[in-house]
Amino acid sequence: KMSAMLETPELPAVFDGVKLAAVAAALYVVVRCLNLKSPTAPPELVFQDSALSRFLLKSCPLLTKEYIPPLIWGKSGHIQTALYGKMGRVRSPHPYGLRKYLTMPDGATATFDLFEPQSEHCTGEDVTMVICPGIANHSEKQYIRTFVDYAQKNGYRCAVLNHLGALPSIELTSPRMFTYGCTWEFGAMVNYIKKTYPQTQLVVVGFSLGGNIVCKYLGESQASQERVLCCVSVCQGYSALRAQETFMQWDQCRRFYNFLMADNMKKIILSHRQVLFGDNMKKPQSLSDADLSKLYTATSLMQIDDNVMRKFHGYSSLKEYYEEESCLHYLHRIYVPLLLVNAADDPLVHESLLSIPRTLSEKRENVMHVLPLHGGHLGFFEGSVLFPEPLTWMDKLVVQYANAICQWEKTKSHCSDTEQAVSGQE
Predict the structure, then answer these.
(1) Where are the transmembrane segments (predicted)?
(2) Which residue from 187, 196, 195, 199 is spatially nearest to 225, judged by alpha carbons?
(3) Residue from 191, 122, 120 nearest 159 by CA
(4) Strand order in the sheet with 201-207
(5) Which of 113, 305, 306, 346 is catalytic?
(6) What is the C-alpha to C-alpha distance for residues 161 and 138, in angstroms, rounded to an integer?
(7) CA-CA distance, 213 to 208, in Å (whole number)?
(8) Which one of 10, 90, 301, 320 has the fewest beta carbons within 10 angstroms of its own beta carbon?
(9) What's 344's DSSP letter?
(10) Does residue 325 contact residue 356 with C-beta atoms inside 8 Å?
(11) How do strand 228-234 and strand 44-46 relate by DSSP bridges?
(12) What is the pLDDT at residue 28?
């Protein structure tokens, strides 16, 4: 009895120790998961020293200023990505635009939304941003609406492509949907803008999959780059073929993201199954009821791409589809200023893929690669502690870069006019 009485008071101390250890372990997990010890820093920049790059560094403070995400959760690429995916943006505005319809040669109906500027551009020029959203996205997505509203207020006209089949309210008029790198609809939108506004100059902007499409479009022909001031690509992966293997790995939960995106793609495709899989003589001959059955059981984008997406354009294999539809082989053919933006903690774009924009930036004077430590996939939220601001670092950077390029072009044009005037006097 005496020994039992002596041992009893020690039990609470043991339990307190266990609780303390549990709390410490939980805090450690939180700190690790939220990357709270990760520093904030200016983005890593890769570029060649040139008159243009020096001008950009002076004119774009965001390139050299540290990006500070929300304190509690902003250093987690997963939370930034999830918040973008679930919420899009905070208190996103509702810019007013007109929907345009273009009939494609194969009977498909391309649509885009056109938004007029809300103020005069800082250069006094007519400038239009032609925007290609991310996978299965369109002009009604909150991150697009927020960016468009901000661009309008800075004097830009905006044209936003709605990916073929992405808008629930628009029926497909041919047995074809958007693919990873088909540039037909984007090209049709750009040609409409060039024809309708003969004085306008273009700023090309692509987000995620849209970044691949716009870079491929510009690199496909020199004519595509006429009247284009610059191009900005945000959070793209550059090579679908090289990304394919990384997207099947559990590292950084990529396999889970793959499953979620595949599930979303399945819903979109199945919403158009009557046009895509119905009794239609114009549908791709290789698209069959068996492919529809495989679609129901698909758990990855690769399975969907292999059974459905590649067949819209008659690719014989998934490898050929990814090889041909990626912008990788077209980037070196782009001669206008090109800004390639990624985040080091983007869970969808494996770090090995970032060697592509880095190598390009080291070789070409017109290219700059911008890599902030944080931001996730299309997140880039800013804010003091917990609640993010409506505008993101990405929104501000794209407009700031576009403004700088417009100023650069106007300065070059002014210098050229002055030189001609002087030579004429001589």
Answers:
(1) none
(2) 187
(3) 191
(4) 44-46, 367-371, 338-341, 228-234, 201-207, 127-132, 157-162, 109-115, 98-103
(5) 346
(6) 7
(7) 9
(8) 10
(9) T
(10) no
(11) unpaired
(12) 42
φ/ψ of 162, rounded to 5, equals -100, 115
| Region at 307 (left for phi over 0; alpha for psi -120 to 50; beta for the rest) | alpha
Beta-bridge partners for 45: 370
Helix, strand or coil for residue 380?
A: coil
199: left (phi over 0), alpha (psi -120 to 50) or beta: alpha
What phi, psi does 159 have (nearest 5°)?
A: -120, 120
| The one catalytic residue among 76, 78, 377, 395 | 377
- How far is residue 412 CA from its own chain's centroid? 30
Amino acid at 233: S
Domains and CATH numbers, the chain: 41-239+326-414 (3.40.50.1820)
Residue with token string 């679908």? 240
φ, ψ of residue 328 in degrees (nearest 5):
-50, -45
pLDDT at 79 (0 to 100): 93
Q: Is 208 a catalytic residue?
A: yes
305 is catalytic: no
CB 379 within 8 A of CB 83: yes
Judge contact between 334 and 366, C-beta under 8 A.
yes
- What's residue 87's pLDDT? 86
pLDDT reported for residue 86: 87
Residue 130, classed as helix, strand or coil, is strand
Alpha helices in 34-154 (DSSP H): 51-59, 61-64, 77-87, 142-153
DSSP code, position 121: -
The ranges of the chain with pLDDT < 50 are: 1-2, 4-5, 24-28
Catalytic residue among 92, 208, 224, 326, which? 208
Query: How wide is the angle at C-alpha 102 spanned by C-alphas 101 and 103, nearest 5°?
Result: 125
